[in-house]
Structures are given as structure tokens and as C-alpha cells.
Amino acid sequence: MTGGVVAGLALAVACAIATNVAFLFKHRGSVEAPPVRISHPIRSAGGLFHSRWFVLGLAVALGAWLLHVAALALAPLSIVQATLSGGLVFLAVLGERYFGFSLGRRQWIGLLLTAAGLAVIGITSGSQVGEPPGYALAALIVIECTVLLVAGAFAALSGRLSLSLATEGMLLGVAAGALFGVSDIAIKFLTDAVGDGVLEMLSPWTAAALIASVIAFYASARGLQLGPGLQVIAFTSVAANLTAIVGGILIFRDPIGAGALAISARMVAFCLIVAGAAMMPAPTRAASSAASTA
Questions:
Q1: Alpha-helical segments (H) within 75-203
Q2: Contact yes or no for 81/233 (Cβ under 8 A)
Q3: pTM of the shown model
Q4: Which of 57, 81, 208, 212 could bridge 241 with an S-S bond, Cβ 3.0-4.6 Å?
Q5: pLDDT level of residue 46 (50, 70, 90 thresholds)
């Protein structure tokens, strides 16, 4: 593992902590704000920005985003996102200790699975490969457009589906996470391209990152208002990381290990991270509190 990859992993860990702190702050602010309505985006954003907790969460999220960009500039996309998946450990610990969420045995098992997967990813990560292959741009277009259209359409239509509020909140979290993943892929593409000059930032991928981030902003806030906090955050994180990990492997040829043993170990590690995320907490105590606040 090169020094740059190690530094990228360290930045990714810091980003994971900051991201989950930001989500917890935004959750507290979202349940205090008026309902987010996609038909009234300006009014909805104004209501969110009137919450000091939500604004604080956005400020922390901005710092996390800068750490994320720096990590993507140094390490492969799939490794960075796998590390961020391990941030679910920080989410659960911080949520239980400081934000009133409760964890059961099943959820703690999920934490251990996620931590084990993260450790294996760190041990077996290979060196970063060179330039993306010739088909990278076509793959990027297909993945970006497909996820952007599907997740954006679901976020817009979710209020018209016959779902329970909790289920709608979690599915909105998935949609927001997929859109955050689209943004991460575009940012990684841009961090590779900016070496050819700052003007490379004037790109359709900059627009893709911005559009995906804006839609995800509203979908995430509404999901946090409707669903159980930690579950919504966990589903958002898993969807974002899976989208970006797949993009890193298919578009940027991120390594999945050197040799059969390392490749097998990393595939198992990815499965452990996903399984651990699926066992993330169902925060009954905090959900009741959030509903009362709302």
C-alpha cells in the first residue's frame, strides 16, 4: 500500500466520522423543521435553514465533503467508499451515546461485521492503477444517468406511493444515498481530470454532481423527517457507498486485490460491510422522540 493510499484512507476515516456527526445533527434539525415538499423547494429549504441544528449539520458536512475530495484524490474510489461504509460504526456509537438512540444485540453484531469488513479492506488494498480505460467515459455516462433518473424519479414520486411513513423515509434515504454516490463518482472523475487544468472543472460531470447533490439534499431531509433516524442514515450510507464502489470498479478499474486470496478476502469484506449495514439499529426510543418533536 503506497503512502498516498494510506493518507487517503486516513482522510476517509476522518470523513466518515464527520459525515455521521453531520447526519445526526441534520436529523435533529430536520424533525424540528416544517415538512419538506418537493413542490415548494425554496420554502422547504428556508424551513430547514431556520433550524440551527440543521445548519450546524450542513457546516460539518461541508468539512466532511472537503475531506472526501482529498481522500478521492489520493486513494481508489472503491477503497475510500468501503472505508466510509465502516463509518456506520461511528454512527451507531455516537447515536447511542449522545443522541438517545438505543442499540440491541443484533445491531452490535452488525457493527462488528462492518468493522471486520473495514479491517480486511485496509489490509488487502492494492496499489492504485493508472488512467481509466477507454470505455470509462461511456460507463460513466450510463451509470450516472441511470442512477440519477431512477433515484430522482423515485424521490419526486415517493409521496404518491402507498407506503408507511417509516418505509417511505427509509426508501428516500436509499434514493438520496444513490444520488450521493452519483455525485461521488463524478467528483472522482473530476479530481482525475483537474490535473490537465482548472478549466476541466467546466464539465458536464460538475453539473451532474451538483444536480445529484441538490436532489439528494431534499430527499435526505424528507427521509430523516419520516423514517427512524439511524436506519435512514444507515440506508443512505450503504446506497451511496455501493453505488460509488461499483462505479470505482467498473469505471476507474479500482483494484480488488492482488492474488486469489486477497481478491476473495476483499469480496468477503464487501459482503460483511453490506451485511453489517443491513443490521443497523432500529432506533425505537429516538423514533418516538422524533415523532413527538415533529
A1: 77-85, 88-98, 105-124, 136-157, 165-193
A2: no
A3: 0.80
A4: 81
A5: very high
